[in-house]
Amino acid sequence: MTMAKPKYELILLKNMLQPGYTGSLADYERAGGYQALRKILGKVAPAEVTAMVTKSGLRGRGGAGFPAGIKWGFLPKDYQGPKYLCCNADESEPGTFKDRQLMERDPHQVLEGIAIACYAIGAETAYIYIRGEFVLGAKILEKAIAEARAAGYLGKNVLGAGVTIDVWVHRGAGAYICGEETALLESLEGKRGLPRVKPPFPATAGLYGKPTVINNVETLANLPHIITRGPEWFASIGSPPKSTGMRIFCVSGHVKRPGNYEVPMGITCRDLIFEHAGGMRSDKPLKAIIPGGASASFFTPEHLDVKLDFESVAQAGSMLGSGGVTVMEEGTSMVWAALRLMEFFHHESCGKCSPCREGSSWLVQTLRRIVNKRGRMQDLETLTDLCQNIAGRTVCAFGDAEVAPILSTLKYWRHEYEELIRTAEANGSSELLMPAAARH
Ligand SMILES: Cc1cc2nc3c(=O)[nH]c(=O)nc-3n(C[C@H](O)[C@H](O)[C@H](O)COP(=O)(O)O)c2cc1C
After folding, report:
1. pTM beyond 0.85, yes or no
2. Residues 137-153 pLDDT 10s
3. What is the DSSP letter of 137?
4. Domains defined for the chain, CATH in brackets
């Protein structure tokens, strides 16, 4: 995997890029690891740690971009029972592969972040819910947890401060929906991973009905640095005040150097693709960009100068999401691309909400007919209508996610849909009714 070109001072990928760095406890300590935990345990009040994180402006790196410190502040004050931290390591969003690298290459950075968050919110138990396919990552984390326990960074009476922090790795069984925070909680409780209706929010009724914080791996990995170097330092990086810090973008697709690139929030799509990822892999020009994982609306070459920060990407009609940037060259069929993504969402729909369960099936069937040159013009209205009846009408954000690729390809490349349909009409292969065979 290509690593970030160190043009900026790297934060999260810094250690692993050092020659000979193995991610062991000894290596991590030599690089200054666990100093942040030492700095706060029993010395800085938990509420003050939360205040530091809020001041840093750190926003969630899992998708929704919610401010981490503010989320922690939603936990009920003076609650006497158990509270939990869940580290969301499900990373199933197509085109996203940063959490995997963080866990496999520098596991203690993630564990120190988890310990800091546990201390701040008063949780004695943290679960790392890791994507089932990440067998190596799970093994590496287990080993790192054992090392940290033996060294007194985890377990009972951490660093002699009278605080208990236990961390457990829980492997998922390969369902995209289990990355959604409430489905993750259901799965962790041993049930089928279906999202819960909110409210109540996990902060008040989460794992086993107890106050719970769920944070992404990358979000948590930032914490040791915020504590060591101060919230002001973190808040000065990127696009302050609303998009602070560095961000790991996972660049994939038709570029010369696909890989993870850690860059300040707010660099442009152009910089990321052409400077860091080496530009297009062949002489074919750029055609399309997914800026934030499969759930994000497509961008076109017109968007190359959009800044990759939460606000700018949203203003341009998409979202920063999981940081998965997929690049497509001229010659890629955008109808086919929409179908491919929709097949994924249809396969992964958990089935709880009928608009998503039924709608995703209809969307796949309709797209497949168009791609297979059996479509008709009316299908375009059907697609739009289906999307409008899914978005905002499901328990979780999956519904909004699955319609984004279709609505955005219809917006920017409607002529490609029309061309396929015109060919079908000219061939006499348009189908007026959906045949049973096309439903499977
Ligand atoms: C369908 C779906 C899948 C998701 N998958 C992930 C995931 O794999 N990893 C992740 O961190 N967040 C994922 N999220 C976002 C989580 O629900 C949640 O917002 C996030 O874990 C919170 O952590 P953060 O605030 O640190 O970003 C997903 C959301 C949805 C709707």
Report:
1. yes
2. 999 999 999 999 999 99
3. H
4. 22-235 (3.40.50.11540), 242-329 (3.10.20.600), 334-432 (1.20.1440.230)
Residue 52's SS3 state is helix
Ligand 1 contact via 219 beta carbon (within 6 Å):
yes
β partners of residue 246: 264
Are 249 and 261 in contact by the 8 Å Cβ rule? The answer is: yes
- Mutate which of 129, 171, 214 for ligand 1 pocket (most atoms within 8 A of beta carbon): 214
**214 CB within 6 A, ligand 1:** yes
Residue-wise burial string across 34-70, b where 16 or more C-beta atoms lie within 10 A, e elsewhere = bebbeebbeeeebeebbbbbbbbbbbbbbbbbebbbe
Tell me, using a 6 A CB cutoff, whether residue 224 lines ligand 1.
no
Say if ligand 1 is within 6 A of residue 90 CB.
yes
Residue 195: name the closest of 206, 182, 204 by CA.
182
Nearest atom of ligand 1 to the alpha carbon of 63: 15
CA of 309 to the centre of ligand 1 (A): 18
Q: Give mean pLDDT, residues 407-428.
A: 96
Bond into 241 cis (ω within 30): yes
pLDDT tens digits for 75-110? Answer: 999 899 999 999 999 999 999 999 999 999 999 999
For residues 385 and 363, give the distance between their C-alpha atoms in angstroms, rounded to a whole number: 10
What sign results for the dihedral spanned by CA atoms 317, 322, 323, 324? negative
Return the ligand 1 atom nearest residue 184 CA.
Answer: 17
Tell me the C-alpha to C-alpha distance, in Å, between residue 292 and each of 133, 249, 274, 318.
22, 9, 17, 8
CA distances from 299 to 113, 258, 293, 409 (A): 33, 18, 12, 9
Q: How far is the CA of 216 from the centre of ligand 1 (A)?
A: 7
